[in-house]
């Protein structure tokens, strides 16, 4: 696994994974990223030039993908359109990148015999009731709700079929909600933190009782590397850190961090089709591959993430006004 192609390596989690490879392995890394609005060159700036190269290109372009897959031993596929709200406004790029992009990569992996790891989401399983005693496992039936999650589900199923039909050497991981540095201000935690930094109020969709199962991006990266090295070909592994919290609880933790009143937030228009609860049972990954998260305490990880946004206003501020204007136009 010395030469690793990381798609979407200039995004939130992909860039975290590139840092993980530089810090914890001797791999050389090629990032393939289209540099969409969600990417950030700064997130992978300053890394050793003899270890990390950036190729700007589209994963759905076979002419770009084919030679890059040929040159590498392992493909770790993060690139995606990733935001549910955007998928409700305009699903087309989600189908193109998430489905056709994954298809182009799989065809190249098939041709060149590359090991392939596909990064996916727990949202492919749909949602749970708040009081459901079961959590998602590797055998939970697929039941995606949104254009985003349905295109991720489609991409997962392509990977499974390419393993079975063509013998592609692939693994899949489905992870819960990530938080940490470099997450785009469109997403829940960065949006609320930056609202409060700006003296505004957090915006909760609906009643704020929807539950997400939070994991730090560092822990997602270590899990992906573990699975890419030690996972069983054709298998799926769920990644989670037992971090269930409802959105109202998270907003109150953010307000408390800044010494603001715990009720100083607004309820805004709910997301259409809003999934109620995600929850991951990561027993298989922990028992079979010996992985465990480093961030056991969400409050501590959240506090460090909040401070990162306080200290990196130059990075997020240029994007903030346009994102808020787009949300405001939807009553959110
Ligand atoms: P992100 O939106 O921050 O980054 C996505 C990256 O992919 C960007 O750098 C973007 O430029 C790139 N990209 C988009 N379309 C491309 C294309 N056609 N060709 C090449 N590059 C393209 O996303 P993220 O939150 O870092 O998510 C990364 C992966 O992890 C996704 O596959 C997502 O489904 C999965 N995931 C995310 C979470 C989460 O909480 N964020 C949880 C589970 C799984
Ligand atoms: O302003 C907001 N207010 C609010 O209440 C925003 C932006 C979100 N929310 C709610 C919606 C969700 O219940 O917060 C929760 C988290 O929202 P997002 O950050 O948009 O994440 P989610 O839709 O849960 O999806 C995320 O986790 C799974 C990632 O964006 C996906 O890429 C990943 O697959």
From TrEMBL:
Question: Which chemical reaction does it catalyze?
Answer: dTDP-alpha-D-glucose = dTDP-4-dehydro-6-deoxy-alpha-D-glucose + H2O
Identify the EC number(s). 4.2.1.46
Keywords (alphabetical) are: Lyase, NAD
Q: Where is the NAD(P)-binding domain?
A: 5-301
Gene3D superfamilies for this protein = NAD(P)-binding Rossmann-like Domain, UDP-galactose 4-epimerase, domain 1
**GO molecular function ontology, one term from the record:** dTDP-glucose 4,6-dehydratase activity
Needs which cofactor? NAD(+)
The EC category is: lyase
The source's domain of life comes to Bacteria
UniProt record similarity statement? Belongs to the NAD(P)-dependent epimerase/dehydratase family. dTDP-glucose dehydratase subfamily.
Q: What is this protein called?
A: dTDP-glucose 4,6-dehydratase
